[in-house]
């Protein structure tokens, strides 16, 4: 079972839920920018949540399926179509052999995820399938997809047989078939425009004068086009330290909001370095990272302050929703 | 007096899934020892919900999963982790080193194509290239942390006699294994990357090897010594690696 890359798209990389345990060796976590979306893509078709799936950015790739393949597309709406016919997101989809999946204009969000039954067959490096672009390892040959690449899938280990059989019945002579159901929209992120991103104070928050602290919570900031998987460079009211303080490098994490000397914020994203030396004014809460990962360059965000207790509660609730979805899908498969 | 540092202790959150234990606010050996002691303690005594930890100059950052703790019935995961760490600190707060540090010898071919800036470093410090090599190889360096790139060590202990500012224009490509000097720091480029350090030599060793269990050759807490080798030995070591 193989999939041929006819066009690679802007940045298409194999990702999973990240490479943990090696940050003390300087090895970044990587993984999907929108972890919720990649996990749901996998769950929808009976894969492990950690299976290797494809993250595609703004302008998606064109992929040719040589054999029938069960897939799910989640995350951003980048106008996916199979043989020219529009496809719905967030549901199991059986693609008929010799069909082509393509993408059009980005409608909502920034990154879509394509999971295939069994997951993509790529080697596990340091416990993960995620592409580590800077070191040239992991994922598909340690790099983004290129024209002519051939991707293969693992044999499904879960139990997607029922989807497959049900969809086989409805596909007929069509190019693809999708289930008539999809998970309740309450269970996955909606990626509203003009995002409010919640954050908690960072370790160096008190080093900033009250004017800068106030700007952080009241001003809007634009995600510039210089943003990538390593970090989002924001543009807005510059923030400044009360006095210039030399910071010693220390560990940072996904969602850390740093303030370099020129005063324009940087939010560290999935491919961030393991350590950093800029003052950390705030930290985006885990429950809002998916939302943040989907804000398109050129769009604005605002930060809303929340407490650590609330942030952890929201994190736990998010996990409970995914857990619920997992059970509901298992029920669906078995009944 | 460095010992004053022993009183310094701060614990604070880094978002909703990490917590930082800070042992000081400048680079010194007493703080370094406490950082490494604590990291070593965590390595030997992991707790439920611990994902990983990262030691740095003055801090150990602990990444944890609040969801794993809530499944254990913990209503307030941060408060719970705080208690675990405070207990851990009580059990490993001794200032003397409680772990065995490895000594790693890094063979380096100095000068020539491998160390194009050796002559500059020598001139800058009014030394001969041989004297620079002699000073660099007689030092013992502690690995403060690994960061910036996979397997890239931040080394302490450079003799100020050979300290040299960074290059004004960084190089676009620096080969992996290059040994450099930047101000009062010395380090080894672990992967090919752009950079502005003065390059004095290169090691045939792989500082980052993703196909082995411990991909970074060096770990925070190690001690490093450099040993000069000839270009011929450099090539031999390289070839051995390929056969390996």
UniProtKB/TrEMBL annotation, chain A:
Listed Pfam families: CT_A_B
Keywords: ATP-binding, Hydrolase, Nucleotide-binding
Residue ranges constituting the Carboxyltransferase domain according to the UniProt record: 24-321
Source superkingdom: Bacteria
Annotated SMART domains: AHS2
Single annotated GO MF: ATP binding
PANTHER family in UniProt: 5-OXOPROLINASE SUBUNIT C (PTHR43309:SF5)
Protein name as it appears in the record: KipI antagonist
Biological source species: Pontibacter arcticus
């Amino acid at each position: 079972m193989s999939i041929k890359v006819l066009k690679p798209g802007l940045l298409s990389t194999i990702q999973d839920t990240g490479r943990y345990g090696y940050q003390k060796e300087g090895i970044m976590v990587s993984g999907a920018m929108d972890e919720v979306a990649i996990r749901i893509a996998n769950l929808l078709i009976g894969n492990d949540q950690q299976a290797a799936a494809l993250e595609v950015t703004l302008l998606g790739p064109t992929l040719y399926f040589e054999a029938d393949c069960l897939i799910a597309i989640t995350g951003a709406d980048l106008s996916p179509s199979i043989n020219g016919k529009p496809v719905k997101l967030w549901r199991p989809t059986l693609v008929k052999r010799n069909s082509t999946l393509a993408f059009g204009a980005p409608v909502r969000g920034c990154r879509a995820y394509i999971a295939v039954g069994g997951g993509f067959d790529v080697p596990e490096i340091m416990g993960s399938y995620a592409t580590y672009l800077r070191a040239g390892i992991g994922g598909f040959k340690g790099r983004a997809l290129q024209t002519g690449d051939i991707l293969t899938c693992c044999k499904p280990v879960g139990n997607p047989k029922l989807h497959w059989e049900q969809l086989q019945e409805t596909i007929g002579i069509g190019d693809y078939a999708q289930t008539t159901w999809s998970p309740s929209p309450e269970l996955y992120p909606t990626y509203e425009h003009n995002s409010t991103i919640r954050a908690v104070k960072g370790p160096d928050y008190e080093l900033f004068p009250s004017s800068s602290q106030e700007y952080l919570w009241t001003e809007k900031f634009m995600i510039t086009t210089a943003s990538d998987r390593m970090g989002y460079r924001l543009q807005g009211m510059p923030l400044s330290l009360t006095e210039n303080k030399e910071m010693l490098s220390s560990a940072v994490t996904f969602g850390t909001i740093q303030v370099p000397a020129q005063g324009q914020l940087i939010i560290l994203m999935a491919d961030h370095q393991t350590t950093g030396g800029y003052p950390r004014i705030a930290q985006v809460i885990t429950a809002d990272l998916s939302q943040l990962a989907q804000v398109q360059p050129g769009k604005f965000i605002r930060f809303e302050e929340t407490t650590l207790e609330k942030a952890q509660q929201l994190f736990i609730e998010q996990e409970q929703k995914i857990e619920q979805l997992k059970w509901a899908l298992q029920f669906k498969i078995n009944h | 007096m460095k010992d004053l540092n022993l009183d310094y202790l701060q614990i604070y959150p880094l978002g909703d899934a990490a917590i930082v234990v800070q042992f000081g606010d400048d680079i010194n050996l007493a703080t370094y020892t406490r950082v490494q002691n604590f990291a070593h303690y965590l390595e030997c005594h992991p707790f439920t919900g611990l994902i990983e930890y990262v030691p740095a100059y003055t801090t150990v950052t602990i990444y944890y999963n609040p969801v794993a703790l809530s499944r254990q019935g913990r209503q307030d995961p941060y408060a719970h982790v705080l208690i675990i760490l405070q207990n851990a600190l009580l059990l490993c707060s001794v200032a003397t080193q409680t772990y065995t540090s490895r000594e790693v010898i890094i063979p380096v071919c100095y000068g020539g194509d491998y160390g194009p800036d050796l002559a500059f470093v020598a001139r800058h410090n009014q030394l001969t290239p041989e004297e620079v090599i002699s000073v660099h190889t007689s030092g013992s360096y502690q690995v403060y942390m690994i960061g910036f790139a996979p397997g890239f060590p931040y080394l302490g202990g450079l003799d100020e006699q050979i300290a040299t500012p960074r290059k004004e224009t960084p190089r676009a490509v620096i080969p992996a294994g290059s040994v450099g000097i930047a101000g009062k720091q010395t380090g080894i480029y672990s992967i090919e990357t752009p950079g502005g350090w003065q390059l004095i030599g290169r090691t045939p060793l792989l500082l980052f090897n993703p196909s082995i269990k411990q991909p970074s050759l060096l770990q925070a807490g190690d001690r490093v010594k450099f040993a000069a080798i000839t270009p011929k030995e450099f090539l031999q070591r390289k070839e051995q690696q390929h056969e390996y």
